[in-house]
Structures are given as structure tokens and as C-alpha cells.
């Protein structure tokens, strides 16, 4: 979907009361959906962007249905009824970020999204004068690094995570509004294409221990140069990026498969389940068994 000027209500997501846009991220995550997995009908008390990284399915927002595939970006605000339903044969991988447009920053991000409630399928949507973005737009894949940052900062909860999340949200909002104005973004340079290929390889090999030789395997540039450019582009060194994808794969196995913790450790290349448990807890703050018991949501 390319927005015509008459369809671009670029009003203030920069604050409902005319104040400065100072977003507070309340929840962000990456979710690998199971076949036909469904969320809703439901409504939320804040705003949410959901980005489709891969897979297919359907979104229904405010009584209107949308077919969804990789590169689709969805947006809705408080009390808007919506449904998210993954395809049976090709289920979604989704990124979601909940936020409010302004407010004080918490000391730490919360553990789970607040203000989600069931909604009736025929519940009317509230009047939404001048929402800054349509319910669905086909942006392509350029939003992905931003959503990866949201999910990483929220899950890791390192010092100053709320500030980092606000900064990332401001960067994303600026680029999104520019995209709405232009309708397109420049084609990647050859170097950017190479760095993207390195990222794809790291994601594909997330189930294996990291090997520094991969960087020169996927690129004609030197290891140090690729590592530096990769970090500039994606905000993390290749080894850390691979480690984060490995954590996500571990989460996916624990949340969506019938594998035992021992089986999951073995599939991720760990010789010791005890080391796997220590590694997983050091990155998520939870034991694998505890993570498995958490409620699934987006």
C-alpha cells in the first residue's frame, strides 16, 4: 500500500495534547506463531505497531479485514477491536511494540503488556480523529531493524533501557513519517546488500555456535571491516547479533515445540544442558522451564 497525500493524516502521533512526542514503550517482543494461532477479538489501552517479518495470515482492525504477509505494518490505538490470526501452512513471525505517545519513563520496562482486554467482534471502534498512520501499510522490510531493536532492548532490560527504547521509537517514527511522505526509500548500496547477506546468514545459522570465519565467507571484505559496518547498521556486533538470534531460537523451541529443555539445548549445539540453562538465564533473566510457562501474547 502506497499512501496518496489525501490518505496521509500525518497529525500528531506527536502527542495527543499538542505536547512534544515523548514515547514510552510499554512492551515489545518477537513472536513465532503456531499454525492458525489467533489473538482476539481484543482491544488495548495504548497504541501498537505490529510488523510481519515472515509468514502470512489475517488482521482485522476496527471491523476491516486485511490479508497480511512479510513487510506489512499494522497500527491501532486505544479501544480499537482487532484480531490477529496466523495462517495454518505459513504462520507469522511477528514483532510488536506497545507505546503511549508521551509520559514519564519508568525505571525498568514492565514484564508484560498492560491494558489488554477482550472485545466483542461487533464492538464499534471509537472515533479516531487524525490517527497518524493507516491500519495497514505495505512498507517492505525496512522497519525490521527498528523492531529488532525494540525487542532486544525490552527483553534484555539493560541499564537505561527505557531511554534507549524512547530513542529507538523516535528514530522509527521519524523514518516512518518520511516514508509516508516519499512513498519509497532508496535502493541499498552494494555494501548494504553485503551486510544484509551477512545478517541473513547469521540468522540462518542461529542454531549453531558462532564462527568468526562466517563474515569473510559471506563477504569479500575483511573481518574487521564487515564487523564494524555490521555494528553501524544493526547496532550490535555480528557475534552478539548471532547470540541474540540464538536466544530467540531457544525461546521459539521452548514456547512452540514439544522439545524438552535437554532436546532444545542439543538442537542449539550445546553439549551440556546445565550450561544451556545458565546461558539462557544470563540473557533472559529466566530459567528455560520458567520461560516455557509464561503466557504467550503479542
UniProtKB/TrEMBL annotation:
PROSITE patterns from the UniProt entry: HTH_ARAC_FAMILY_2
Record-linked InterPro entries: AraC-bd, AraC_XylS_family_regulators, Homeodomain-like_sf, HTH-like, HTH_AraC, RmlC-like_jellyroll
Keyword Transcription regulation: yes
Region (Disordered): 104-129
Lineage: superkingdom: Bacteria
Domain HTH araC/xylS-type: 196-294
Gene Ontology terms, MF aspect: DNA-binding transcription factor activity; sequence-specific DNA binding
Keywords, in A-Z order: DNA-binding, Transcription, Transcription regulation
PANTHER family, sorted: HTH-TYPE TRANSCRIPTIONAL ACTIVATOR RHAS-RELATED
Descriptive protein name: Helix-turn-helix domain-containing protein
The species this protein was found in: Paenibacillus antri
Amino acid at each position: 500500500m502506497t499512501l496518496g497525500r489525501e490518505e496521509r493524516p500525518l497529525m500528531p502521533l506527536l502527542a495527543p495534547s499538542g505536547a512534544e512526542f515523548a514515547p514510552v514503550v510499554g512492551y515489545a517482543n518477537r513472536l513465532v506463531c503456531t499454525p492458525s494461532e489467533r489473538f482476539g477479538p481484543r482491544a488495548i489501552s495504548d497504541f501498537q505497531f505490529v510488523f510481519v517479518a515472515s509468514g502470512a495470515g489475517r488482521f482485522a482492525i476496527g471491523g476491516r479485514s486485511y490479508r497480511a504477509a512479510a513487510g506489512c505494518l499494522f497500527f491501532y490505538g486505544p479501544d480499537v477491536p482487532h484480531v490477529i490470526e496466523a495462517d495454518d501452512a505459513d504462520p507469522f513471525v511477528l514483532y510488536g511494540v506497545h507505546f503511549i505517545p508521551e509520559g514519564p519513563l519508568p525505571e525498568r520496562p514492565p514484564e508484560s503488556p498492560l491494558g489488554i482486554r477482550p472485545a466483542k467482534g461487533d464492538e464499534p471502534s471509537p472515533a479516531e480523529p487524525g490517527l497518524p498512520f493507516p491500519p495497514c501499510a505495505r512498507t517492505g522490510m525496512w522497519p525490521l531493524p527498528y523492531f529488532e531493536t525494540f525487542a532486544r532492548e525490552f527483553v534484555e532490560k539493560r541499564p537505561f533501557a527505557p531511554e534507549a527504547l524512547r530513542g529507538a521509537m523516535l528514530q522509527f517514527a521519524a523514518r516512518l513519517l518520511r516514508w509516508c511522505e516519499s512513498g519509497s526509500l532508496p535502493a541499498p548500496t552494494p555494501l548494504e546488500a553485503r551486510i544484509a547477506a551477512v545478517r541473513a546468514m547469521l540468522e540462518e545459522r542461529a542454531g549453531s555456535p558462532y564462527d568468526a570465519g562466517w563474515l569473510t565467507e559471506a563477504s569479500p571484505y575483511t573481518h574487521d571491516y564487515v564487523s564494524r559496518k555490521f555494528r553501524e547498521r544493526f547496532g550490535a556486533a555480528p557475534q552478539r547479533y548471532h547470540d541474540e538470534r540464538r536466544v530467540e531460537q531457544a525461546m521459539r523451541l521452548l514456547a512452540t515445540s514439544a522439545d524438552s529443555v535437554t532436546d532444545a539445548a542439543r538442537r542449539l549445539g550445546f553439549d551440556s544442558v546445565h550450561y544451556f540453562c545458565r546461558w539462557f538465564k544470563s540473557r533472559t533473566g529466566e530459567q528455560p522451564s520458567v520461560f516455557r510457562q509464561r503466557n504467550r501474547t503479542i
